[in-house]
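Incident review: delayed structure delivery

Summary: a single-chain prediction request sat in the queue longer than the usual turnaround. Root cause was a stuck worker, restarted by the on-call engineer. No data loss occurred. The affected request and its eventual output are reproduced below so the record is complete for anyone auditing the incident later.

Affected input:
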Amino acid sequence: MGDSPLKEYEGEVFDCVIIDGSNIITKNTPTNEGEGRSLSLIRLLKVISKVQNLGWPIYLGMKKGTYRFAISSDNSNLSAEEKDILSELGDRGKLSLIDKKNDDDWLIKAAIDNNGWILSNDRFRKEVKRLAEDESYYLANEINKRRCPIEFVGESPVFLLPVNYKSMSLTKASNSTGSVDSLLKKAGSIGAMVSVDGKIEEIRIPIGKPIGRRLLGEKRIEGIGTVSRVHFIIERIGGELTIMDLGSTNGTHVNGLSIAPNFPFQIEGGKTSEIRAGRLGFTISA
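Output delivered after worker restart:
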């Protein structure tokens, strides 16, 4: 069953997976006024990657309004790089944009026309009730039969689908979005120029993972002796980048300012920041 925590899939096996992109990219987030909503491109890319790694072809749909807000609005919490990645999915024709009033009908029709599951945490109660009232019991039953519920643990998706061993290699090749795994890696990291003793090298720093001698040593960057094994971590909180020193020996500096260990420090958006860890200097743009 791949990496699903559930024991085994029980149910009818279909031919593909219809992904409810609007539902998956949108998540509830706590605010000072209660609960609000934000966007998570990482969640969407992880879902696509996981479905493809199970061997299933996909059809990805998203409301036009959600897509336009995500890539164009000043209120979108996606970073400039994440907006570019989502726009790239749209430009490559890997994303079907749907009118708001027709989004659930599109998902249902796509699932029936292509004999697929619907991957969403939407229960489609209104659609099932409407179809039942219209005596379209067949379609109402098809929704319940094809709906594959999805939940998230942090940014990681949890859902239950079988492995499609027969078409695994074909699916990975035909479903490449250039590829989704590479886009996922790009969305989960930030570009940086690292300098030591006048030498400059371009690297990508993972977001949400401790950075230190172990990671930099894998990249064969010289001058890492003054960097702690686990030195600092960069995270994205509500669309903003933060950096936190992890109790390193020589400390972490941002734009010449020594930051306190074990407290997140916000990296100013729209500007270039200089981060120093030991002898290494990192230049990043938030």
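Verification: The first helix runs from residue 21 to 25.
Action items: add queue-age alerting; document worker restart procedure.
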